[in-house]
Amino acid sequence: MALKLSDYKTEVHNDWCPGCGDFGIVNAVQMALAEMNIPRHKAAIFSGIGCSGKTSHFINTFGVHTLHGRVLTFAQGAAIANPEMTIVAAGGDGDGLGIGAGHFVAAGRRNVDMTYIIFNNGVYGLTKGQASPTLKLGEKTKSLPSPNTNYNVNPIGLAVASGFTFVARGYSYDVRHLKDLIIAAVKHKGLAFLDVLQPCPTYNDINTRDWYAGTDITDEAAMQTHSRIYKLEDTGFDPLVHYEEESELNEKLSQALIKSLEWGNKIPTGIFYKNEIITPYSGRIVDKIPNYLENPPASQKISSHGKPITDVSAILDSLQV
Amino acid sequence: MDTDLTWLIGGPQGSGVESGANVFSKVCARVGYQVFGKREFYSNIKGEHSYFAVRISDKKIHSNVNDVHLMVAFDSETLFRHADEVIKGGAIIYDSDLESIKLEDVHNMDQNFKSRLERQLKSKNKESSIKGILETAKERGVAMRPVSFREILAKLADDTNNPKLKGMIRMFNVIGVSLSLGILGLDPKPLLDSIESIFIKKPKIAEINKQAANYAYNYAAAKFEKTKFLLNAVTKEPNTILVQGHQGTAIGKIVSGCRFQSYYPITPASDESVFLEANEILSVHEDRPGSTVVVQTEDEISAIGMMIGSALTGTRSSTCTSGPGFSLMAEALGWAGINEVPVVITTYQRSGPSTGLPTRHGQDDLLFTINAGHGEFPKIVYASGDIEESFYDTGKCFNFSDIFQVPVIHMVDKFIASSVITCKRFDPQKITINRGKLLDKIEKTPYKRFEQTPDGISPRSKLGLENGIFWNTGDESDEYGHISEDPEIRIWKMDKRLSRYDQILNGIPKDDQLVSHGTASHCIISWGSAKGPILDAIEMLKKENIDIGFIQLKLLNPFPTEYVKSLIKNVKTIIDIEANHTGQLGSLFKQNIGRDVDYFILKYTGRSMTCTEIYDSLKKIFENKASKREILKHGA
Fewer CB within 10 A of the end CB, N or C, for chain B? Predict the structure, then answer.
């Protein structure tokens, strides 16, 4: 039975600020789930803490609202124990790149088959607008007493360097494009990272919707403004690692890294890097445990009539004197 | 007379002390003796002093004693540190090449110990050297058994026409074990079998080791007179296993159906996870093979997060850590608490605070564990007293977590982790599996994860279950699991969760809450691995017709207050024995029972208790010569 978009919505009242970029992301996730027709019980949304953390409550699939910075840990545990689930983890930039940065790097190395979306707005919204790890050095958003004293993290660059095998960026006001990116991320076999630029209308008065739309810059020749956001796919950019050779891999990694540094008047969105050659974590487990995918932890029978059925006699024999 | 002999082997870390002791233990166990061995080591990879004390007996034993009867030393530090422990009539086998070494030549021994030893030797008019320390032993009536280990290797090299053997100092441990067996007059056959099974994939190395073993055994048997300690003939009890510390909980997890374990490396807990991974493919009766997926994470925060994520899929999931790692888990523990997620955290305690004594024993985490995590939520803290118990208790802990839908912290410690014991082969059929209200199918829709029920425990869905969608959040939440800050909901949810404590006290059988080894006018209270030396000390007192009670607490949170009260009604003197500074069980006892502990017997040197020192302190208590706090110090 085909599911409708409305099937993926809950009745929970959404208390994000009016005009918040987060709405676009939740809509895009719901649209992506509907378009892929994923049964509701086969999907789980994990979220961190902060405004983005509430995401899981608005989507009518399993929803696990975890701890600040720890969303990837919970999500990976579930994905490994039950690899049949479609797992999407969602969190803020402070959540994932500040307190959770260690998990971000480690998750990249592991390459578990799931999707991670960072709601990137440059501020800690729910605690009233402190600087987040993605805010640029020297920038002073509305509620900061003085300009930001830290250099910014480059989420795309960090993901590429950490071993994520699908790295993309979306913009929360281009919901259709974002939905397509989410579908591509979910379908990717391995860990997919989506950096979503998401204006915070309350606390980030620098990277606003108007700023992304480029209302402050004028194209002299055309006598009109142009959006800062552009799509990599429109420029013929090829993010895919085509074959298993170091030169090919290095070229795709470095072009992604170079593109990730682009900011200011031109901000790329779309897929920066995609590597289908690197084995996902499930494949690495299969190398050790051949029937892992047919009989993963969540499916295993462990007892019969209240008694254990695991046979440890070989182990006990080896200890016998 | 009983057979009761302690053999000690020492040497630099990485020199084969542990494998030598394992072989010795195995040989003794194969003959039929009961074995209790314990390893001590520094936080170091190579070079620092480590030793293994193996006690063998024809009776069931649960701990070490102070006395050493036969010692093997292939380095000078072992002689400096342990020669004093060898008693009259005992013997020291040592490498005669060490005789010329002076205390000042041994650089890796810490200055504090060296100064103490120097003063001690000076007071006996002995020089600060191997010669001096061996003289004091000789004067006490200890027999010297000098052997040139290098000469043995040289002789072996000549006999077998294999000059390479001359430099094989890695075989010192095999030689040491063989010399010991020769002196003890124990049959060398199990030794040769053990060597064969250890080097099963390297037949050439097995052969060389067997030659060395035979040579050393015959050498000792011919040259030295047999030890005076009685070795009664024993018959091997059928179904005896020789098992190491971490294997009880590890095998317990496999049997109990734990299929996911995440962990971050930490001493002394990692061995359990490594064992699970080494045995990851499982054979299952009447089903396809199963498996334990073991994930090494980036830190303990990730380990607990992954474990919880996995548990949400209905998988029995666990992690294993020690104090420093458990500290990092405190926040997520509360998340499991508020969301009623069944998980089992096994914690092998060591000495804190901070990194503390990273490879040494301690029971200093009791109150921290009970109180870990901010806010109020139910958790079970359960402690095992030895390796055998830890196997069966692991099964119970998983059941408790599933039935009561709470996190369970299973406490063990470094003493258990680094002991090797003989015990009855574990019986997996004594373990039951009860998943509580875990659902396989949703009967009633709409499903509400935190549905109100008479007992406060709601039917539990799992990720992937059709019609069983739920939400979880670390915020307070309503029946579905959506965030709620409503005061009425808050009262209901807090009551729902915390009423679990009554359920637990009523639901866990009394025999699983504590073990009463009898109560008398004097009664010991204790927990965890202090059990072993306490039981042996009680045996020693019994021989003098002194009767003493002992309550071993296993369920520490919630505390079985009423049950304990009923047991100690007629007890006059309460003695708390545990391995920490403040007497944490004593505090818990007072808080719950409202009664003071009369005496504390405490040890916080990082070394486990021996039954000898507990016996000594208990005797002082009976003779009214004890101080309120008896502090134990034995052990290098």
Answer: N
Closest residue by Cα to residue B186 from B27, B22, B20: B27
> Degrees (nearest 5) of the Cα angle A283, A289, A290?
75
Domains of chain A: 8-288 (3.40.50.970)
Asked if the domains B243-430 and B510-631 are classified in one and the same CATH topology, the answer is yes
| Cα B384 to chain centroid, rounded | 9
Contacts of B332 in chain A (CB under 8 A): 67, 70
| Residue spans of chain B under pLDDT 50 | none
**What confidence tens digit (pLDDT) does each residue in A238-252 have?**
999 999 999 999 999
CA atoms within 13 A on the CB side of B306: 30
For A225-234, what is the mean pLDDT?
Answer: 93
Q: Provide mean pLDDT across the span A247-266.
A: 97
Q: How many CA atoms lie within 13 A of A228 on its CB side?
A: 21
The region, left, alpha or beta by phi > 0 then psi within -120 to 50, assigned to residue B171 is alpha
Inter-chain touch A57–B287, beta carbons under 8 Å: no
User: For A105, which residue in chain B has the nearest alpha carbon?
Assistant: B298
CATH architecture assigned to B510-631 = 3-Layer(aba) Sandwich (3.40)
pLDDT score of A106 more than 90 = yes
A31-55 residue pLDDT tens: 999 999 999 999 999 999 999 999 9
A88-98: average pLDDT: 97
Per-residue pLDDT tens digits for A19-28:
999 999 999 9
Banded pLDDT at A1 (limits 50, 70, 90) = low
How many Å apart are CA B103 and CA B105, to the nearest integer? 5
pLDDT tens-digit series, residues A178-213:
999 999 999 999 999 999 999 999 999 999 999 999
Question: What's phi and psi for A129, nearest 5 deg?
Answer: 90, 25
Q: What is the pLDDT of residue B170?
A: 86
Backbone angles phi and psi of B556, in degrees to 5:
-105, -20
* Shortest CA gap A153–chain B (Å): 20
Residue A98's identity, in one-letter code, is: G
CB-based burial, B67-103: b 16+ in 10 Å, e otherwise: bbbbbbbbbbbbbbbbbbbbbeebbbbbbeebeebeb
CB A89 within 8 A of CB A71: yes
Residue B59's Cα: distance from chain center in Å? 21
Residues 6+ apart with CB under 8 A from A191: A107, A108, A110, A111, A112, A113, A114, A115, A116, A163, A164, A165, A166, A280, A281
Asked whether the beta carbons of residue B299 and residue A102 sit closer than 8 angstroms, the reply is: yes
The alpha-carbon gap from A36 to the nearest alpha carbon of chain B, in Å, equals: 17
Instruction: Name the B residues in 309-348 with CB < 8 Å from any A CB.
Output: 309-317, 331-332, 335
In the chain, the amino acid numbered A70 is R
Q: Answer for the pair B95, B12: CB distance below 8 angstroms, yes or no.
A: no
Where exactly are the structural domains of chain B?
4-223, 243-430, 437-508, 510-631
Share of chain A above pLDDT 70, in %: 98
Residue with tokens 């006996």: B124
* CATH superfamily, domain at B4-223: Pyruvate-ferredoxin oxidoreductase, PFOR, domain III (3.40.920.10)
B52-66 pLDDT, tens per residue?
A: 999 999 999 999 999
- pLDDT at res. B419: 96
pLDDT at B431: 98
Three-state DSSP at B477 gives: strand
The predicted model scores a pTM of 0.97
Sign of the alpha-carbon torsion through A140, A143, A148, A152:
negative
A227: distance to nearest CA of chain B, Å? 38
Domain B243-430 has CATH 3.30.365.10: no
Per-residue model confidence (pLDDT) at position B168: 85
